[in-house]
Amino acid sequence: MRAAAPRSGGGQSPKLGARALQLGAQQVPLYSGAVHYFRLKPSTWRAALEALRSLGLNMVETYVPWGVHELRDGSYDFGQYDPQKDLGAFLDLAHALGMYAFVRPGPNINAELTYFGLPRRVVFDEACQARSARGQPLPFIAPPRMFPVPSFASERFFQEVERWYAETAKVLSTRIWPNGPVVMVQVDNEAAFYFRDAPYDHDHHPDALAKYRAFLQVRYDEISVLNSAHGTEYAGWEGALPATRCPPDASHPVLRRSLDLMEFQSELLAGALDRLRGMLHDQLGPLPTVHNSPMGESGLPTSLARLDQVVDVNGLDYYHRRSDMSAVKARTLRLAGSTRLPYAPEMGVGAPPWFAARTDADGLHTLLCACAYGLRGLNLYMAVDRDRWYGAPFDELARERPHAEDLRRVVRALHRTHFHALKRRVEVGIMLPTEYARLSRATHTLGAFSPSLLALAGAGADAACLRTELGFQQPIQLAWSQFVMQFADALDQARVPYVFVESDASKTLLEDLRVLITPTFEFADPKRLHLMAYFKERGGRVLAGPHTPSLDAQLQPLSAAETRALEGLQLCAADQAPQLVAALIDELDLATPFVVEPESVEATVHEDHSGPRVVFLVHTHAREVEAELRLPEPMVLVDALTGERYEGTDQVAIPISGHACRMFVCERTSGAMSRSRPPSARRSPPC
Amino acid sequence: MLSTNLRVTGFDAVTWGRFISLFESRRRRARDDHRNSYGVVVVVEDPNGGACAAFIGDRGPIACDQYKSREDLAALCAEHGVRRGIALKLGTIEELTERATPQMLRTDDYAGQWLALLTAARELEREGALYFWPEPRNVVPLPTPQLVTRALDVVLPDEHSFVAALWEDAELWTALVLRRRGGQFDLIGGPELVLDTVGPLSGDFRRDHRAVSRAISTSIAPLQLGIYTQRRRFERLLREAEPGAWAKAVALREIIIDPSPAYVNIAVGADALRATARRTGELLGGIDFLSFLEPWTRYAREQISHVTSVSGMLGFNPLQVLARRLRANEDGTGETILPPSDPDDPDAEASDSIIPQPAAIPRERTVANSASYEDDTSEDPLDEAPPEQRNALNDEPTDDHEAAGMHDNSLSNQSASRR
């Protein structure tokens, strides 16, 4: 059912540019704050929105909870009975205050709501439930009630969602910019099978099995070919079942069966999101769409890049502690290298009470650190406190808390420097092979205790992988990430900026890179090999290794054409990383930011056409230090939070606390710069 | 246990962090490097018993080629400097989730759902699919959901509230408000809720408690139990081993318990008795001056036997478990269960002063003493299990008479040993 067409807006609609929303002639960066209208008294809404504006934010984000709006009899309440549910009134108020709105109608919203915001009747509808290999529902342990998670393949579930979207569209569609504040919409939420994302958890729902068989049919065409590939003996397609485990002594056919399952799961999720996106598009028109991948991204069923192909912006949620800045760095570099617009749909300010406790400083330093490594848009979640949350800058009555001022200053600095439009000069990419990530998932041994949970815990997504070689020279499922980390460490030591590029990322993300480093073992995805060849042809340098692949991602011999893509491949071993990086620096004069000592401090520089505009110092150790920062020219660095000024001609000394990130706005003292290359690109001799 | 409409409100990051910190060991709070011996080695065993995967919880994969059987788990832990290990057969977690799912979804109670999961885990442990090192002694028994509900009914009856408010000097440092409604907790509130409900406070908890009690009773639900004290006092009491610590704090008004339900009064009184008995025993060279009171205390207990005990219902004393855990972690042992006293070692000291000294315990009772929380003299104000409700952890048949004597306090133990 399609909602009423929006009133005429002169043919305008919100669009997403390279780094910001394009609303007519105006560019609007993606800075927003979360306010849950349905959890606050309507009498507080105005104060909450004004609190948001006082932070310097002109966009409000809110979930639209299905389970709250749907009544027991299947009808909906959008304010007809309970004014607290009057989404329309809330959006109208935002519009009247000159604000924009980023809406998130789910279906899954989590938001610490019971059943993640889904109606109970849908959750307990057996036709909607995901199924285990033994046909059982898959409960997730969220408080206050564990519930069986829905299936991303269930036709019944999609029908229910379509009805829900149609209901929300009755409210939203008439309020889309320029007729109202709505400028962006999120598709679903943290799509990772509701955190039952372990490799063999999902999904034996009949609709999922049908999709799985269809996937196999496309790949193998004939059942005999499938049986040969998987080492199975199915009489027909209807008998084909997903693997339930990868045994330690798996032969390649058995391994292939698991790898196919991992790829299918990725496509199942991406396909489901695409279908939901299409439903929203049908109801709301071509609004920019967003999705948010959850934490533990290195162990998720699908890559950031894959989902970035489905929606306009696929971002990451951040709920780290300040002691986790290495993790913040790694994931932001992955986001920056693999998606078109590095964005945080949830930049956690505070946390739910059932997370590990976070302080105000945790939220602040996580935000700064993510910006340091390339984040270009963020949504403060939450900006105004609500039930089952603590730590927002404003409480439930929109009264300001002390740490609001810090956030206000950061937002002010982001606006003042046009931070969303700045660039970080990065010339090195470490490519993360999706096929090896799938191998790590396929060899996971801890059942429902998924790779993403292990990644979240700090053990790494591959912590519980089989240690067996599986017919290769080494356990690739463990070795590939070692290769990646050794090169990352070497680049860190050499102070060379880099990003992580997922191998299914868009080619356009390679354009600014000059070096690509990627692990290759006995098997590799031909698409990745072609990408590497393409990169070389464009004049880039490729470092790969330690082995030349001879098999493709299905563990079948590479074709002649695929093998040609490997010609001229410079193979290397991970333990050569420091020497290779040093050689690259010398040979290619790779860009390095402002040199800083000691080793535990890193500097990142964000520039525009005029040169450096913002410098961050990131300190990952526990003790306070005084950082010695080399300056390429005389300048003043002004701390965005404290206003402290550090002026120098070629060097400044800046104290920095343990586990901290400081943001400085650059003010030049010698007039406009004119040089053939930005100063950060010149490598200064070590001091 | 938790309402689907549970509301959690009234905390900011500071006051929430403070609340959590009460239950963290100081040692854990002090460390800033999480990569230390607080990790856990996890080994996944292949069908032959060797390791096919191994990692440390917060570090990542580890080599495990030397692991051939569970006997190697301790050595693997030692090699990596961690104090705990878990070994599980390949497929255990899958089996766990499949087994637990029907029961988890059959109940509409969150505690019941977790108990279903834990019960399945215990089953798998008994079957050998799951193994913990070091092997837990004095394992806390899993109560049934009904027992949990009954225990909660004792502590916080339906349509009642609880508040614990802690001051640091004149500032309300943090607070916890709980309300139970329809048999479930539907409100967890913090200090902002307290202040919004009661208004400005004077800063002296000995005066403010009345206003807080009144305001919460009026605005939230009739107050069943209120605890008001300075933060440091509360932290010490949580960890206190000495009998009488709580009674003394109440007597000196270092802690206000208002209102104070019957079971608290009895427990505090019993705590005072125990302290007195121990002290007199020490002062008088082991002569149990108050032993003549024993029949009277038993008589009093029989008269109040309708006051049921949390510990008796659950089969363990939750406050005691918490206190031991906090103390153990701060001692650096990493042990959650205290080792039994060695009856043959004259120099052995109980590592917990609430366990009677070895010399004071008749030898034939020692093993039973050490195996049962219920045998300990407890500082727990909530622990007043009538003998018929105690649950012997080592499945020995309860001897009510003997159990009563052992449980009441250390009087009879000491008097028996010193005769």
Describe the model.
The complex is a heterodimer of chains A (687) and B (419). With 687 residues, chain A is of the alpha/beta class. Chain A is 31% helix and 19% strand. In chain A, helix 5 runs parallel beside helix 8 (252-284) and helix 10 (325-338) runs parallel beside helix 11 (360-372). The radius of gyration of chain A is 25 Å and the shape is globular. Chain B is built from 17 helices and eleven strands. The longest helix of chain B is centred in the middle third of the chain and has 22 residues, at 262-283. The interface between A and B is large, with 59 and 54 residues.
List the helices and strands and how they pair.
The complex is a heterodimer of chains A (687) and B (419).
Chain A: E1 15-16, E2 20-23, E3 26-29, E4 31-34, H1 42-54, E5 59-63, H2 66-69, H3 87-96, E6 100-104, H4 120-123, E7 139-140, E8 147-148, H5 155-172, E9 182-186, H6 206-220, H7 223-230, H8 252-284, E10 289-293, H9 304-308, E11 313-318, H10 325-338, E12 343-348, H11 360-372, E13 377-381, H12 404-416, E14 428-432, H13 434-442, H14 451-457, H15 476-493, E15 498-502, E16 515-520, H16 526-537, E17 541-546, H17 560-564, E18 570-571, H18 577-588, E19 596-597, E20 601-608, E21 611-619, E22 625-630, E23 635-639, E24 645-648, E25 651-656, E26 660-668
Parallel strand pairs in A: 4-5, 4-13, 5-6, 6-9, 9-10, 10-11, 11-12, 12-13, 14-15, 14-16, 16-17, 17-18
Antiparallel strand pairs in A: 1-2, 2-3, 7-8, 19-22, 20-21, 21-26, 22-25, 23-24, 23-26
Helix pairs in contact in A: 5-8, 6-7, 6-8, 8-13, 10-11, 13-15
Chain B: E1 2-9, H1 13-21, H2 26-30, E2 40-45, E3 51-56, E4 60-61, H3 73-79, E5 84-89, H4 92-106, H5 110-126, E6 130-133, H6 145-155, E7 160-168, E8 171-181, E9 184-189, H7 191-198, H8 205-219, E10 223-230, H9 231-239, H10 245-251, E11 255-257, H11 262-283, H12 294-303, H13 310-314, H14 318-331, H15 363-371, H16 400-408, H17 411-418
Parallel strand pairs in B: 1-9, 2-5, 7-10
Antiparallel strand pairs in B: 2-3, 3-4, 5-6, 7-8, 8-9, 10-11
Helix pairs in contact in B: 4-5, 10-11
